[in-house]
Amino acid sequence: MTQDLQQVRSELRRLGYLSHSYDRYLLQDALRPRQPLRTLGQLTLKVALAGGTLFALVLAFALAAVNGNLVASPFDLIALFLHLLPATGGAIGLGFLLLCALLVLVLRFYPVRRIEVLSFGVALLSGLLVAAVASWRLLELWSGSERWTALIFSLVLPLAVYALIRLVETGLLTLAIRLTELTPRVRSFSRRWIAATVLVALALITLPVVLSVRGHERQEPAHLPTAGGERVLLVGVDGVLAAELDYLLARGALPAMAALLDDGGVLEPYRRPPAAPAVFWTTVATGLDAGGHGVTSVDSFRPAGVATPLARTGPLRFYWRWVSVPLGLTEYRPVLANRRHAFTLWELAARGGRPVSAVNWWSTYPAEPLPGLVVAHGAYQLLQDEAHDAVASESRPDLIEWAAAGRKAIADSPVRPGSKEKPSSMESIVQAALPAESRQTVLDKAVLPDRFYLQALEHSLTFEPRVAALYLPAPDLAADGWPGGDIALSDLVRAHLQEVDALLAAHARDFGTVALFLDPGRRGAAPERRGGVAGRVLLWRREGGCRAAGLSSEASEAAEASEALSPQAVTAGLSLALGLPASEELPAPPAVCAWPAARDHIPSFGRRRPLPPPAALDSEEYLRNLRSLGYL
């Protein structure tokens, strides 16, 4: 036996396997007379330790780069590595065991003489599969990141996968030698050939990662030139299907919207990206995609020892949410306004002291004090929990007191059966359609909050804000688990849109530009059941109109033939209507309307300096709020 092992050692040394590189780290197990199961256990442990360390470093760098930890808190790399090492080591060890099982089956039922070819083939296929899956799943994680970090990643990932292929190949070869007592006839394919092939293949795979990132970040201009501009009303309604809207317009149930359409307004479809509500509505408010404004999810994770929470986790979300959080190693947190690093329309319009109003829009908690009124997203529930920073005003402290009193008045309003006060149409539908055990839940999470937000906006219009933005999610929230049947839900959507229509009838013509987004929301997540995911935006302009005299015939024809609008283009048009300069980061405004000519052009509106995060208790209350509304 000793003579056989010496012969094997001699052959391996002649072929170059027993060099001082890490091949010897595994192949020495093939030369020791121990039981196969013990050999397998030793091999799995070594592969898991080496591969897990390598990929924990790569993933820690990726998470730190895309979440801004490298700049804000670079020492987070150490903590992230320690958190990820058990996960990557366990995954690689499990994968190696499965490959070993495959190798054993092949050797048992189909004896192979060229064990080095078999080991290399299995390792190469598994490595390329890991590279393809990693690149595919990491596209979303890296989209919008700095180009220099993506370039580093595109170089590091191929090298890491190449190292993994060599590690797995050597481990499988070690097991094959131990089981068959054969030695490789020749050395595996040339290492140079392997490296060239793998690097070329992985470069092609990771190319989309590089192409999907943003270029060099533009600096904020020292001075933001503005023209006189006009007032802008921006309303977003979540959970309305296009077919429902078309039906109600055709039936004459929305007279104010119809009047705006008859007076030069247009109703256009827009491209709805498959993104979370927080991401999409922040895009509408800023005109930038997720990579531009920084909000990529509803929640975030803060592992122990990490200073900057991870909002972008990509394929690692499952590990953080369902392994690390239950073990108490990671804190589960909502994405707050301090994660948004792009300015909204109302923040830009408030420069110079002009009042603005923003009510319940995503990525506004904690509310930032601005001239006018800011009611943070989810403020109805947050005010009940007495969370700080749910409402803010830089110039009108009386509005903060009014919001707290108005919320209490709505919550205490008699909407239950037996009340002498006549409930609103939406409340009547809920009371008639739902059983008692679910009736108050829908009222508290959808109907009453939207009534409060509508009243808050109308109250803020008394000081003539330059921008008035309102987000109403009641149809989307009510539809989530609605037990009352489709007819009752359609009636609820109709009643809600009629309240929005009444708002437009009373105030739309006080503004120069109106943009009403009617989005399918989560109801459009299953088009095979819900009838599609197309959203609609109603645009109306007092000056120039839409598809009217302000457009040349050529532009009008181009607008008719164009594809669906993008939300970013609509926001670009609204910024021009406000008198803001044209930013190179925003696309051209939609050609369906005549927009004011930009009086100046700037590279970017700059990067928003985040506010200090709220207290941990307030953050937890906002997280509970999102969970109660069904977003988490």
Descriptive account of the structure:
By secondary structure, the protein is an alpha/beta fold. 53% of the residues lie in helices and 9% in strands. The protein contains 24 helices and 12 strands. The chain has helices spanning 2-15, 23-27, 36-66, 69-72, 76-109, 115-142, 147-180, 191-211, 242-250, 255-262, 277-286, 290-293, 317-324, 345-349, 379-384, 397-411, 425-433, 436-460, 474-479, 486-507, 527-530, 553-561, 567-577, 616-628; strands at residues 232-238, 266-270, 299-303, 330-334, 356-359, 372-375, 391-392, 467-472, 513-519, 535-541, 582-583, 601-602. The strands form 3 sheets. It has an 8-stranded mixed beta sheet with strand order 2-10-9-1-8-5-6-7, sandwiched between helices. The radius of gyration is 30 Å and the shape is elongated. The termini are far apart. Residues 207-217, 414-422, 526-532 and 548-562 have low confidence and may be disordered.
Structural class per helix/strand content? alpha/beta
User: Major sheet: size, sense and barrel closure?
Assistant: 8 strands, mixed
Number of strands: 12
Rounded average pLDDT = 77
Range of strand content: 5-15%
Distinct helical segment count: 24
Low confidence ranges: 207-217, 414-422, 526-532, 548-562
Percentage of residues assigned to helices? 40-55%
